[in-house]
Amino acid sequence: MPVVTFDYNDFINILGYKIPKQELVEKLPMIGGDLDRVDGDEISIEFFPDRPDLASVEGIARASRAFFEFETGLKKYDIKKSDVELIVDPSVKKVRPYVVTALVKNITMTDELIASLMELQEKLHLGLGRNRRKVAIGVHNYEPVEPPFTYKAVDSNSVQFVPLNKVESMTMAEILQKHEKGVDYAFILEGFDKHPLIVDKNNNVLSYPPIINGSLTEVTPFTTEIFIDVTGTDQKAVNYALNIIATALAERGGQIYTTKVKDQNQTYTTPNLTPTMRKLRINYVNKILGTKLNEKQIIKYLQKMGYNATFSRDIIKVEIPSWRADILHEIDLVEDVAVGYGFDKFEIDFPKNHTFGKTLPQQKTYDALRNIMIGLGFNEVTTFTISNEKDEFTKIGLNIGDRVQIENPIGEEYTCLRIGLIPSLLKILSENRHHPLPQQIFELGIVVDNSFKNQYHLGFVKIDSKANFTECKSYAEAILRDLGKTKYSLKKKEHPGFIKGRCAAITINNKELGYFGEIHPKTITNFELEHPIIAFELQVDQL
Length: 543
Fold this sequence. Notes:
seven-stranded mixed β-sheet
């Protein structure tokens, strides 16, 4: 979770009201976080990642004004119009299609503002921006450039400029190879023959998103006007990021100016701080929270959380701030009612009905398997159910088949749910290859079968210079014997991840329930390992 560190006196200056430090430290975590530490006037709070608007001291101060009831309800910002325009060239639509911009003037740069702005930018990149893949933010000194700006895609060798923190001019291709940020984020632009670029009227480079800004627009202690660009692959996310950054600067006394983005046949004005509307049912709130709150009380608690709300015919209409990216459903508003009400006010109650629990039948089998494996000298591990196609299929020689895919993956490592345990166990061996041999581990965990149902599997691997099929067969027979399974047969199995002729299937009642054998050398090298490996996997729920 993101940790926000700020100075108490700086916080009070932004807040505009007096509140004792001890009271602040005690009550501020109730908004939705955990107190990390207090060191003199320096306070660190760890906020939940679903609240990117609280990733800066400015956002915390805004939420605190409402929560401590200094200024309840939706915060309104004075917004003026500017003549700044950004033109979107069609060439960029296939690379990074969305862009929004804003201009903030009358800024007084301080050490606290510079530090907070940089920290907020990186937190948004990491969380809301999914490591810049989904959202990337550019913050520029507006004075050296001249609108209109153009957002376009160009050949990476056709344009050169001096990137931030460098003194020599580089082409975009060179930046990806030599600049620290280019090396870190080049993966985002892999596979594209053209890369995005933002230039001004005179072809001065402002930004090479999502990699680096140009040094021309570097923000300095003397900057008074800031131009913000946010590019990405998700339209909602780029708007949320822009609203969070722009309003954070407004909390420091900056004046927000709107800009126009001309995207082919569309022209839209950003930032758009118009709140969205959502309905909240009173009976739903009380059902979820176990309370008997009336409409006036619910509206009060919503206002305490920074919303505007009105009541009409058993429905509360809620105005949601344009920087609240976490409100996706009615239940999210119920949660904020609970926060506004105060978790400390909920009464402790005991269950009304006495019931007697017992272990599920299959749990006895799971416990028995764990004892068997420990008795055979294996150490238990627990790995992620989320995996990727490369590990689950490609590295073990399988063609990519049916699997449950993640619609919006956080990265390339987590794109689908696993179909077996052996790849996960091989990854554990790979991460521990610097430790001495032998290593033997097992996992009793969930995989997703061909019918997309959760199933428990047992898997083990052993890496050792003398590991062989005979040893693996003895382990498999010992497991089945100790489970009381005497009627089974072993049949030859062809599997690309195993050495041909050294892989066997376990069949019970004419149904294949598992397999084991010696891992193929190609599979071993695919997982960056060197020594012989034996592996076993069994469908436990089918026994």
